[in-house]
Amino acid sequence: MSDEEVRRVSDALDAIEQIADLEQRVKAKSQVMAAQAQRNKEWSQERDDLIRHLNTEEGLSYRQIAARLGVKLSTVQAVFRGYKGSGTTRPKVNEGGT
Prior knowledge:
This protein has four helices and no strands. With 98 residues, it is an all-alpha fold. α3 crosses α4.
């Protein structure tokens, strides 16, 4: 089920990359990127919540979580360090709201 859904999305993205007209291809890519920007925030939060649950409720180690979810160990570590974003200098998330 999940693998099929991922394949379908990947095929759709491949189809966009095959659009012959450069302007139309760039427009399509821009639309996809804009739509995905909000999803990235939501999907990341859902992933982070599950990572915390697997550690606190199921007692899994960071390595076990990474293997189970198919993510990098550094991704799991970043959740517990409170980092968001990417790059070599990621600011700490301000959890106090100020």
